[in-house]
């Protein structure tokens, strides 16, 4: 039996550090002389059982200890590009967390140059276009985020936007109002995680205090009718990550995911992998997962793929070319 061809799509919610597969983590640990507190790949994989966002973040930040040199970041991004290509990703907007590397003395230059070295040939090697989005850690102070933004300024030619991630509850978007205003003045795109574990009020704030162009996750918007109406009427993209929501216990089971209700409500939802090395699958795995668990039809899947292209930070020609690819896709029987 041959594997069906994945639907062409854009991936808009992917943390590059969350693509660090255990095998690569061990390889980099060896190369850099870093000791991991796990003896084997299987032992490490067995630790991927999370009770909430924080329990995941603890492991996610700890494993980053293996990422030290430009080459490490290039290898990490190359591995993602190859996997994403095999999953039908034709355009990827990739988050990175510079503050999580700065704590180990790994500076902005190493991270951005390393990632950019992989991304600059992605189109030639994979036919994939890419963007980089710098995420601020919301559980760190706002003035640190502002300093991080200034450190990134020399790289604004390769950074398309800023985002907001890490521990959500207790760290409302409002805290980063000034940072986002500065990023907007610099011509950067704005996105933020909101309504993953945090309440609908955080989604309102992401819209009104930060002026985001997309909301990452946003699934808890379904608890607030007026918010759903606002998101629907503005056609605000929501980058939903189904496997992530199950693994971080935002929903109990994939079968309980609100995605069908979100589509039904007319929301502009997209399907993404978030941290695929930790959550059990890449973009097409998530797409197939929701399709079978939630009984989505082929045209729902095509709508999700079209939404991803329409929500991407790309020019009109690239958008038209990708929409044509999505429309030409034929589902296997
Ligand atoms: O899903 C997430 N939420 C918040 N922060 C994150 N950092 C990586 N993944 C996530
Ligand atoms: Zn995320």
Automatic annotation (TrEMBL):
Positions annotated as active site in the UniProt record: 196
A Pfam match: A_deaminase
GO biological process terms on file: adenine catabolic process; hypoxanthine salvage; nucleotide metabolic process
Free-text remark on how the cofactor is bound: Binds 1 zinc ion per subunit.
A GO term for molecular function: adenine deaminase activity
Site (Important for catalytic activity): 217
UniProt keyword annotations, A-Z: Hydrolase, Metal-binding, Nucleotide metabolism, Zinc
One GO cellular component term: cytosol
Record-listed substrate binding positions: 275
Cofactor: Zn(2+)
EC number: 3.5.4.2
Span of domain Adenosine deaminase: 8-328
Family, similarity comment: Belongs to the metallo-dependent hydrolases superfamily. Adenosine and AMP deaminases family. Adenine deaminase type 2 subfamily.
Function as written in the Swiss-Prot or TrEMBL entry: Catalyzes the hydrolytic deamination of adenine to hypoxanthine. Plays an important role in the purine salvage pathway and in nitrogen catabolism.
PANTHER family: ADENINE DEAMINASE
NCBIfam families registered for this protein in UniProt: aden_deam, PRK09358.1-6
Name the UniProt record assigns to this protein: Adenine deaminase
Organism encoding this protein: Nocardiopsis gilva YIM 90087
């Amino acid at each position: 039996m041959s594997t069906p061809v994945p639907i062409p799509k854009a991936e808009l919610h992917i943390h590059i550090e969350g693509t660090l597969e255990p095998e690569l983590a061990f390889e980099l640990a060896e190369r850099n002389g870093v000791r991991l507190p796990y003896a084997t790949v299987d032992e490490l994989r067995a630790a991927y059982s999370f009770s909430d966002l924080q329990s995941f973040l603890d492991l996610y930040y700890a494993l980053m200890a293996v990422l030290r040199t430009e080459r490490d970041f290039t290898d990490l991004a190359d591995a993602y590009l190859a996997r994403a290509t095999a999953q039908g990703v034709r355009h990827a907007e990739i988050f990175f967390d510079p503050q999580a590397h700065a704590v180990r003395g790994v500076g902005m230059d190493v991270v951005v140059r390393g990632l950019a070295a992989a991304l600059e040939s992605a189109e030639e090697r994979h036919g994939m276009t890419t963007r980089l989005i710098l995420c601020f850690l919301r559980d760190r102070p706002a003035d640190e985020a502002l300093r991080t933004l200034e450190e990134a300024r020399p790289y604004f030619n390769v950074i398309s936007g800023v985002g907001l991630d890490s521990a959500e509850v207790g760290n409302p978007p409002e805290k980063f109002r000034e940072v986002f205003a500065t990023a907007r003045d610099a011509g950067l795109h704005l996105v933020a995680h909101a309504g993953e574990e945090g309440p609908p009020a955080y989604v309102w704030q992401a819209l009104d205090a930060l002026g985001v162009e997309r909301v990452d996750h946003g699934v808890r918007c379904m608890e607030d009718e007026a918010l759903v109406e606002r998101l629907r009427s503005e056609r605000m993209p929501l980058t939903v990550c189904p496997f992530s929501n199950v693994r971080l216990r935002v929903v109990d089971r994939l079968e309980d995911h609100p995605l069908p209700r979100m589509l039904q409500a007319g929301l502009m939802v997209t399907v993404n992998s978030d941290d695929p090395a930790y959550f059990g699958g890449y973009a097409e795995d998530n797409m197939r997962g929701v399709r079978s668990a939630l009984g989505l039809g082929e045209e729902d899947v095509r709508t999700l793929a079209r939404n991803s292209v329409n929500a991407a930070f790309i020019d009109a020609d690239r958008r038209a070319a990708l929409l044509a690819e999505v429309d030409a896709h034929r589902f296997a029987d």
